[in-house]
Amino acid sequence: MKRLLEYGGIAASVLLIAFGIGATVVGFNGRDQVRSDLGREQIVGTPDSTIPNQLVNTGSEAQAFAKVMRKHTLEATGGKTYAQMPRFATADGKGTNDEKAALKNPKSGTPVDNPARNIWVTETALTTALNTAYFAESTATFVIVMGIAMLLIGIGFLVLTLGVLRVPSAVKEKRRTPAPAVAVPH
Question: Could you tell me if residue 111 is inside a domain?
């Protein structure tokens, strides 16, 4: 039974160490992928952002740029979000949700979409991608930390298994060899 526990402890240790190394490698690869993909897009922080004139190539920089994009979009739409803006364009520029009061496309006769509202569609798509980069890099960092933790736990478990379950051979020999008989004078 002792041998089974010893081998089981060693096997569990090796698995933890292997998964720890694997998770750490995958985490670093994921983080590097996020950073290279962001860098490839050549996004540069605007002067009013927290990263002015800086290349956006990390998850936290992507999140910072997404925040400034939202600020710019709110400025461009008079402080209104997509849901607060009228759906269609009007001649006076105020917009409407009434199809009959909306400007009509001269070719099709259909109501013209509010172009200011379409800014939100673009902003939402871009900021979602940037925030996803932030999330992906955060997840990769978590995987790195968990990988290192599994590696350390595996090493600790291996040390514990070898130290507790394996009795050193010198101790085994001492147990096997009977002590010499000593004559006691009367």
Answer: yes
Residue 28, H or E segment = helix 2-40
CA 130 to chain centre: 12
70 falls within a domain:
yes
> Residue 26: what residue type?
V
- Greater confidence (177 vs 2) lies with 2
Count of alpha carbons within 13 angstroms of residue 174, beta-carbon side: 5
Determine, yes or no, domain membership for 57: yes
- Domain containing residue 69: 2-166
Q: How far apart are the C-alpha atoms of 117 and 130, rounded to whole Å? A: 20
33 by DSSP, 3-state: which?
helix
What's the pLDDT tens digit per position in 36-71? 999 999 999 999 999 999 999 999 999 999 999 999
Give, in degrees to the nearest 5, the angle at Cα 53 between 51 and 56: 60
If one counts the domains in the chain, the total is 1
